[in-house]
């Protein structure tokens, strides 16, 4: 019988038999392949996981450390977040109150011409600071009508300037005469002296 078998062995028979075993083995592998349902939770190392398959539900953010390149992310110019809050909050300088998005001086200054008042304001908190300025009509009106400041008797100067109706080379200045917002016009030169107060932008 063996002799008969040896006679029938040839290259084609051997290759066909090997192919049959390989095919059967592949099917067997497919049937016994492990699925994700068969894995025990938390049993697979991170490097074995498919990329971008983990989300916020699987990652405990409190366990994450700071990214090395972002080690100084909670600081700005050397200050930590707590110090930054206190330094970046806008405040009005001493002697001023917040009104109409600016800081208005609480006390009126002695009467002066428009140029004199503007120069005095500009020199207050001047270099290296930006200085102060005369208020607009709206800024002064809001401050006066909100009881934050008391308007000086005779009215106060504003920053509004107009060509003079009596002098071709002169100019007139708008003044506010009472807390109700009434206005008057005074010369910008001598004779137009009025009390005034300065305003400045809030600072940190």
How is this fold's topology laid out?
Blueprint: H1 2-8, H2 11-31, E1 75-76, E2 79-80, H3 81-88, E3 96-99, E4 102-105, E5 109-112, H4 114-123, H5 137-145, E6 156-163, E7 171-176, E8 183-187, E9 194-196, E10 199-200
Antiparallel strand pairs: 1-2, 3-4, 4-10, 5-9, 6-7, 7-8
Question: What can you tell me about this protein's structure?
Answer:
- 27% of the residues lie in helices and 20% in strands.
- With 204 residues, it is an alpha+beta fold.
- The strands form four sheets. A three-stranded antiparallel β-sheet has the order 3-4-10. Strands 6-7-8 form a three-stranded antiparallel β-sheet. The protein has a two-stranded antiparallel sheet with strand order 1-2.
- The longest helix has 21 residues, at 11-31.
Shape type: rod-shaped
Order of helical and strand elements: HHEEHEEEHHEEEEE
* Poorly predicted spans: none
Percentage of residues in DSSP E strands: 15-25%
Briefly note the CATH topology name of the domain at 96-200.
Mannose-Binding Protein A, Chain A
Provide the CATH architecture of the domain at 96-200: Roll
Mean pLDDT: 80
Radius of gyration: 43 Å
How many beta-strand elements? 10
Q: What structural class results from the helix and strand content?
A: alpha+beta
Beginning-to-end CA distance, first to last residue: 106 Å
Query: What composes the largest sheet?
Result: 3 strands, antiparallel
> If strands are numbered along the chain, what order do they take across the biggest sheet?
3-4-10
Give the count of helical stretches: 5
CATH class category name of the domain at 96-200: Alpha Beta
Q: What portion of residues is helical?
A: 25-40%
């Amino acid at each position: 019988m063996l002799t008969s078998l040896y006679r029938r062995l040839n290259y084609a028979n051997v290759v066909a038999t090997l192919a049959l075993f390989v095919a059967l083995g592949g099917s067997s592998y497919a049937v016994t392949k492990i699925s994700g349902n068969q894995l025990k939770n938390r049993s697979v190392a991170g490097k074995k996981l498919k990329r971008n398959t983990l989300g916020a539900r699987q990652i405990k953010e409190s366990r994450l450390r700071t990214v090395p390149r972002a080690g100084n992310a909670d600081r700005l110019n050397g200050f930590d977040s707590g110090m930054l809050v206190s330094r970046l909050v806008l405040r009005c300088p001493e002697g001023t109150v917040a009104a109409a998005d600016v800081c208005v001086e609480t006390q009126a200054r002695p009467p002066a011409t428009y140029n004199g008042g503007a120069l005095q304001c500009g020199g207050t908190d001047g270099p290296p600071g930006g200085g102060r300025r005369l208020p607009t009509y709206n800024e002064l009106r809001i401050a006066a009508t909100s009881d934050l400041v008391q308007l000086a008797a005779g009215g106060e100067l504003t920053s509004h300037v107009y060509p003079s109706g009596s002098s071709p080379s002169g100019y007139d200045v708008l003044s506010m005469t009472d807390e109700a917002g009434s206005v008057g016009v005074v010369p910008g030169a001598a004779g137009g002296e009025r009390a005034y107060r300065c305003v400045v932008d809030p600072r940190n």
